[in-house]
């Protein structure tokens, strides 16, 4: 097989093949060009009489190895095609198979660079591929493709978590080396996943605990945004139906909240804040003020919230109904005075934790924010 894109990254190829043996040598595919897919973190290939595609010839693949490769690529409308490639240092062509995208599937962009991809996307792709390949033999490649956006979102969250530089001035300086994972399972996977582990952790005495069974709800990182107009002293809240209160049996499962949304794999939290404000409420934000970022429920939930108060203009006609139609969102926005927000917090009608946090922060810092605006 001849690979021209991300599978030329040997750590990814090793992960997909999971110990299956193979041999590699550099090779070229004449009269083909490799390009980034426009607005996507992977390449595409197309015929071009004036170009040569450089890649990797992979030989000695077992039937299991080929099945694993088909599973990894198969859900994304790629099909194998036989071509003649030239291994470097030889003149004799070799027949190999290449995964070609369906015609018209992608729009080519700039010339592809494996090094640039590894630097920006390699770590996240390895995380995503690890989850993808955990489904091999359990679900179809097409189902994996449907879930892939959230798989990438979860992978990006794990990469962000590893890069964390939060201090350990009061808490114990324990880390991954102080946890022994004996077994892992994923009994549910869909838009979110539920994951279980049998593990032991370091006790404050220095000894390891007994092996215990624990589970967590695994989602992606999210952004929380409370829009605030410091001139008019107003905030915007959004209101929508929520499954959590509904499943708990709350008679009023429509909740008041800040604007919120999951951080896509290719976004910075600040970019998500601007995108979600536009999607949910048609707002253009000015300055973002970062509040303490945090885990809302660390005992059972992996979600991590990047929280902001966003300065913006909130005229009388700013409120309305919005949301992304493709996600079946029906979101009503309310523009209210700051004092009304605090009354909602006091009465309990504002029962969303991130909204309460934003409101209390604003109550402490409101005058300073207004003076600087």
Describe this structure in words.
There is one protein chain. This protein is α+β, with helices and mostly antiparallel strands and 373 residues long. It folds into three domains: 2-140, Gamma-glutamyl cyclotransferase-like (Hypothetical upf0131 protein ytfp, Roll); 146-162 and 178-218, no CATH class; 222-372, Nucleoside Triphosphate Pyrophosphohydrolase, CATH 3.90.79.10. It is built from eight helices and 17 strands. It has helices spanning 10-17, 63-74, 114-134, 141-162, 243-248, 269-281, 338-347, 353-372; strands spanning 2-3, 23-37, 43-59, 78-87, 94-101, 108-111, 179-189, 193-201, 212-218, 222-229, 234-241, 254-257, 259-262, 288-290, 305-311, 321-322, 331-337. β7 (179-189) and β8 (193-201) form a beta hairpin. α1 runs parallel beside α3 (114-134) and α3 packs across α4. It is globular, with a radius of gyration of 25 Å.
Question: What's the layout of helices and strands?
Answer:
Layout lengths: L1 E2 L6 H8 L5 E15 L5 E17 L3 H12 L3 E10 L6 E8 L6 E4 L2 H21 L6 H22 L16 E11 L3 E9 L10 E7 L3 E8 L4 E8 L1 H6 L5 E4 L1 E4 L6 H13 L6 E3 L14 E7 L9 E2 L8 E7 H10 L5 H20 L1
Parallel strand pairs: 10-15
Antiparallel strand pairs: 1-3, 2-3, 2-4, 2-6, 4-5, 7-8, 8-9, 10-11, 10-13, 11-12, 11-17, 14-15, 16-17
EC number: 3.6.1.13
Cofactor: Mg(2+)
Catalytic activity: ADP-D-ribose + H2O = D-ribose 5-phosphate + AMP + 2 H(+)
């Amino acid at each position: 097989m001849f690979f021209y894109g991300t599978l030329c990254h040997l750590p990814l190829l090793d992960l997909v093949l999971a110990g299956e043996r193979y041999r590699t040598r550099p090779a070229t595919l004449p009269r083909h060009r490799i390009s980034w897919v426009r607005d996507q973190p992977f390449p595409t290939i197309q015929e071009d009489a004036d170009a040569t595609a450089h890649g990797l010839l992979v030989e000695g693949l077992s039937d299991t190895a080929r099945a694993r490769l088909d599973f990894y690529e198969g859900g994304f409308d790629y099909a194998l095609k036989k071509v003649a490639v030239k291994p470097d240092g030889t003149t004799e062509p070799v027949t190999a198979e290449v995964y070609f995208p369906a015609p018209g599937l992608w729009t080519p962009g700039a010339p592809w660079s494996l090094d640039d991809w590894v630097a920006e996307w390699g770590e996240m792709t390895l995380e995503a591929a690890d989850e993808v390949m955990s489904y091999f033999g359990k679900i179809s490649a097409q189902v994996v493709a449907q879930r892939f956006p959230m798989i990438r979102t979860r992978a990006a969250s794990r990469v962000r978590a590893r890069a964390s530089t939060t201090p350990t001035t009061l808490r114990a300086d324990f880390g991954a080396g102080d946890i022994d994972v004996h077994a892992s399972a994923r009994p549910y996977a869909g838009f979110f996943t539920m994951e279980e582990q049998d593990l032991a952790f370091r006790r404050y005495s220095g000894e390891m605990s007994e092996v215990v069974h624990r589970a967590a709800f695994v989602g992606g990182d999210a952004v929380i945004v409370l829009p605030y107009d410091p001139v008019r002293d107003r905030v915007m809240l959004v209101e929508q139906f929520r499954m959590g209160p509904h499943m708990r049996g709350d008679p009023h499962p429509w909740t008041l909240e800040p604007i919120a949304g999951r951080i896509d794999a290719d976004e910075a939290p600040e970019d998500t804040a601007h995108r979600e404000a536009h999607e949910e409420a048609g707002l253009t934000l000015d300055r973002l003020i970062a509040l303490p970022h945090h885990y809302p429920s660390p005992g059972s939930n992996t979600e991590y919230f990047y929280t902001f108060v966003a300065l913006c203009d909130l005229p009388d006609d700013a409120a309305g109904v919005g949301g992304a139609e493709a996600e079946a969102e029906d979101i009503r926005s309310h523009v209210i005075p700051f004092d009304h927000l605090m009354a909602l917090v006091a009465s309990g009608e504002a029962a969303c934790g991130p909204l309460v946090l934003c409101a209390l922060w604003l109550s402490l810092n409101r005058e300073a924010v207004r003076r600087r605006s």
